[in-house]
Amino acid sequence: MRKNKIIAIDGPAGSGKSTTAKLVAKRLGFTYLDTGALYRALTLLALRNRIDLEAEGELVNLLKNSEFQLQTHSDQSRIWINGEEATGAIRSPEVSRSVSIVARHPAVRREMVQLQRRLASQADVVVEGRDIGTVVFPDADLKIFLTASLDARAQRRLKELREKGIDIALDELKVDIQRRDQIDSQRETAPLKKADDAIEIDTTRLTIEQQVDRILQAFRAVVQKQDENPRIRPG
Ligand code: CDP
Description:
By secondary structure, the protein is α/β, with parallel strands linked by helices. It has nine helices and eight strands. The chain has one domain (6-222): Rossmann fold, CATH 3.40.50.300. Helices cover 49% and strands 16% of the residues. A hairpin with a 2-residue loop joins strand 4 (76-81) and strand 5 (84-85).
């Protein structure tokens, strides 16, 4: 039986997953795992090495021969690729535009899922992504699916990028987000989809604190149920 607790948070771009997942992890003392950062890191490497984004085998080789290190301290999460910090570089508009192409390949995803399961096996974790509740951890203790209107999501992302000094027009951002959502939702392998047993939260009119509180409440209810009836524990 799996001993560690897993909270899965899925949803489209800009739905507030990262901020929410980080805060939930902090409140519970759990580790935070951003699976999108791993797809972004592989995409950055592929772009830097001028690898054709359709060359599935080459992408898998690149992934197998690379080392990713993730670290989260209070609200800041950082990533190193083969020892070099790439925290800012993986969020560039260029990577954002290409990542869904890389993430579409089944063999890339197979490798990523193994890596993610390894990374999440040691401690209690909050894992964030697109297919966490459906594919990576279908037995997660709690599954959350965050949504928000396209407008709200684009506005949030604009603010985030501006704070990082990246200037991009709102309309351009909307088109990018829509395109990425479309590829992510329509791919054959592990599409972005709410798991049947996930709790859906529309965050359009919620503050981050409200989102976090709802998830913590739901988690407390799950733990209480598991304590009352240990046989329903997954794993
Ligand atoms: O933060 P944002 O919502 O922009 O996206 P992200 O979580 O950094 O993920 C970037 C991209 O990686 C997504 O658009 C997906 O194409 C891909 N991804 C995925 O396919 N599966 C995951 N579990 C996580 C991300």
